[in-house]
Amino acid sequence: MTSTNMLGDLTTRCEFVLASSSPRRYEIIHDVLGVDPLRIMKPSFEEDLDKSLYLHRPLDYVADTCRGKAESICSELADSGASPARPQVIICSDTIVVDGEDRIYEKPQSHKQLIDNLHYFCYETSEPVRVATAVTIIVFKSPKEYKMSHLLDVTNLHFDNRLPKQFIERYSLFPGAMKAAGGITIQTACGAMVSRIDGDYYTILGLPLNKLVVALANLEI
C-alpha cells in the first residue's frame, strides 16, 4: 500500500536521503510520512566518542555523535565534487538511553548486558529511563553550499517492576533486542515492560516525529 505524501511539494523540489540503516527510521520517513523515493546513505563516522568526556552531559554526547554522522555525510558528498540536480535533504539521527544517574546506554554488546540493562530498568531504579534522540538535517545543494540544523528530543519511559523476571528472559531472545539502544524495542513485546510513556513515542523509535515535521516544514531551501 502506498502511503500519502505528508510533506507535499517539498519531496518534489528536493531529494530525500536517510543517513541511517535503521529499519524503524526508514519506516517513519517512508511509510509514515510517505516520502518515496527515499535514498539510504550510511555515515562513515565511528560512533566511539569518549564517554568520560561527557560525564553528566549525556545529551551533549548524543548531539555530538549525530553531528559527527552528519559531517561524515557532508564530507562524502563534497568529496564527490558533484552538485545534485535537486537540493538534497539529508536526515541523520542518533539515539541513546540514559538512566537517572546520567549513565549512557547504547546497543548491548552481549546477551548478559541486555538482560542486566532491563533488570536495572525494571527492578533496580524507581526513576524513569530517558530515551534521547538527536537529529541533524542537512540541506545540500553543492559541495560549497550546504547548511545544517539540529534538534533534540527526550521521552521518559516508566518501567513496571511487577513484570515477571521470566518475561525479560524470554524477550532477551528476540534478535532485534541487541540492535536497539539499551535493548529497548518499544514496538515489540518490550513495550509490555513500560507502564507509561511521557513524550513522543517516535523518539523511542529513533526519530521524533513532531519536531522533525515542524523542522522540515520550516526549511529554507
How do the helices and strands line up, and which of them pair or pack?
Elements: H1 10-13, E1 15-19, H2 23-32, E2 39-40, H3 58-80, E3 88-98, E4 104-105, H4 111-124, E5 129-142, E6 145-159, H5 165-171, E7 194-198, H6 201-205, H7 209-217
Brief write-up:
The protein is an alpha/beta fold and 221 residues long.
Structural overview:
The structure is a single chain. With 221 residues, this protein is an alpha/beta fold. Helices cover 33% and strands 24% of the residues. The protein is built from 7 helices and 7 strands, in the order H-E-H-E-H-E-E-H-E-E-H-E-H-H. Strands 1, 2, 3, 4, 5, 6 and 7 form a 7-stranded mixed β-sheet that branches. The radius of gyration is 18 Å and the shape is globular. The mean pLDDT is 96.
List keywords for this structure.
221 residues, alpha/beta, 7 strands, 33% helix, hydrolase, Maf-like
Helix content: 25-40%
Main structural class: alpha/beta
Helix-strand pattern: HEHEHEEHEEHEHH
Q: What gap, in angstroms, lies between the N and C termini?
A: 30 Å
Percentage beta strand: 15-25%
Which shape, going by the Cα principal axes? Answer: globular
Number of strands: 7
Tally of DSSP helical segments = 7
Low-pLDDT stretches: none
**What is the average per-residue confidence, as pLDDT, rounded to a whole number?**
96
